[in-house]
Amino acid sequence: MKKITETTQNKVNKAEKKTKFYNDNVFLSIKNLHVWFELRKWGFRHAGYVRAVDGVTFDLRKDETIAIVGESGCGKTSLMRTILRLNRPTKGEVVFEGTVINDLKAKGIKDYRSQVGYVQQDPYGAMPPFMNVQTILEEPLKINGVKDPAERVQRVIKVLEEVKMSPATEFLPKFPHQLSGGQQQRIVIARAMIMNPKLLVADEPVSMLDASVRVEILKLLRGLQKDHNLGVIYITHDLSTVRYFSERIFVMYAAQMIEKGNVDQIIKNPKHPYTFALLEGTSDPDANNASIQKEVPPGEPPSLVNPPEGCRFHPRCPKIIKGLCDSQMPPEFEPEAGHFVSCWLYK
Ligand SMILES: Nc1ncnc2c1ncn2[C@@H]1O[C@H](COP(=O)(O)OP(=O)(O)O)[C@@H](O)[C@H]1O
Ligand code: SF4
Ligand SMILES: [Mg+2]
């Protein structure tokens, strides 16, 4: 009897330790996040909401890369901009190292942003065309109080070398239009890295680049993640690039996360019919094939103003359970440890 009690206690202790380890390692928590944009008719009359993010929950652990995958228009950028505090959440919380960032005031937002680097989809659009590389990269340092010009230049040169723009001094006087697309994206990455952030958010960082430079840019991001122990959120509509880039994959559909798991769980053992269809359209998960147009399930993603009742994928789903999927939204099930799916097939 005594033995059984001890074993049970050991198990409880172990479970508590595991939970504590996990909690200690979470540094970004997204809790039931909603981002709705108000629609106005003729510019003033309320005409509904675009529910761009509609109840998203996930954690990011220290030094972890996650990929968020989903079709265009499913809310990826809105989610990222809210994490960066460029949008305000309508409901829910973004918690970074224990601080709720929804409530931050101007100074707090500035400090927070210096810890989070942002790599946008369109590198040219992300840079002021009238500033040269040196000015673009010095700007965040000035904003964050690095007063010594010599120190600023030194840090600019160091970060340029890190993004493999060398010799760095040659690039300092160049303007964005004098650089190739790949070089422009390297400058955007350098700007995101210059404050030594803890988290890097990369929103479709290679989708506007030539296929030939995509792999190089992804390798660069992966290298920076490892060298600096960064947390990375990599956003993409293209599953073929995520396998060698991230530890976990989260699949988004119509403003919600519908499946989450580690790379092998999602790639080798997808559960949600939407993920399954996305993967079927990805003939080869090698990033070299990233330029091939991927098929998505037939039909259109739903309107985010009036999303379908029940499961939002039901109008396109080959496995629909009539009378259930079309009326009740599936909760999150965990068919295997750490693998979550919002689909009635796993109830
Ligand atoms: N500022 C905004 N005002 C109104 N609607 C917006 C705004 N930003 C995004 N949306 C809408 O939110 C939805 C999700 O867009 P977005 O987050 O850009 O998706 P993704 O990045 O996955 O393509 C789209 O319907 C888009 O039109
Ligand atoms: S809940 Fe139903 S409609 Fe939605 S993906 Fe699962 S089976 Fe298909
Ligand atoms: Mg986007």
What do these coordinates show?
With 347 residues, the chain is α/β, with parallel strands linked by helices. Helices cover 34% and strands 23% of the residues. The chain has one domain (63-85, 106-346): P-loop containing nucleotide triphosphate hydrolases (Rossmann fold), CATH 3.40.50.300. It has eleven helices and twelve strands. The model is unreliable at 1-6, 15-22 and 284-295 (pLDDT under 50). The site of magnesium ion has 4 residues, from helix 2. Magnesium ion is lined by residues 76-77, 203-204.
Topology, element by element:
Elements: H1 2-25, E1 26-41, E2 45-61, E3 65-69, H2 76-83, E4 91-96, E5 99-100, H3 106-114, E6 116-119, H4 123-126, H5 133-143, H6 149-162, H7 168-171, H8 181-193, E7 199-203, H9 211-228, E8 231-236, E9 248-253, E10 256-262, H10 263-268, H11 273-280, E11 333-336, E12 339-341
Parallel strand pairs: 3-8, 3-9, 6-7, 7-8
Antiparallel strand pairs: 1-2, 1-4, 4-5, 9-10, 10-12, 11-12
Helix pairs in contact: 6-8, 8-9
The chain binds adenosine-5'-diphosphate, iron/sulfur cluster and magnesium ion.
Adenosine-5'-diphosphate (ADP) is lined by residues 37, 50, 52, 70, 72-78, 304.
